Amino acid sequence: MGKDKKTPQTVTIDDKEYNVNELTQEQVAMVNHVADLDRKLSSAQFNLTQLQFGRDAFMNALTTSLKSNEAEVLDA
């Protein structure tokens, strides 16, 4: 049975691959910050899409309701 060789953890920055074990602690911290910020940006974009859809749905419901009221007033 052969030895299990772990593939070194790498990060790609500007199309260049870096071995994380060869980075300084400060560089690893910055990589972690960038990854966390990427996740937060993705989450914020998801939330923005959700909020926009919700706003559009409420605006459509409001305009439908207003048109319905106008029709009732005209029929009265």
Please, could you describe this protein's structure?
- It is a single chain.
- With 76 residues, the protein is mainly α.
- Helices cover 67% and strands 11% of the residues.
- The protein is built from 1 helix and 2 strands.
- The chain has a two-stranded antiparallel ribbon with strand order 1-2.
- It is rod-shaped.
Please specify the SSE layout and strand pairing.
Layout: E1 10-13, E2 16-19, H1 25-75
Antiparallel strand pairs: 1-2
- Please state roughly what percent of the residues sit in beta strands, choosing from under 5%, 5-15%, 15-25%, 25-35%, 35-45% or over 45%: 5-15%
Q: Main beta sheet, described?
A: 2 strands, antiparallel
The count of β-strands is 2
Query: What sort of overall outline do the alpha carbons produce when their principal axes are compared?
Result: rod-shaped
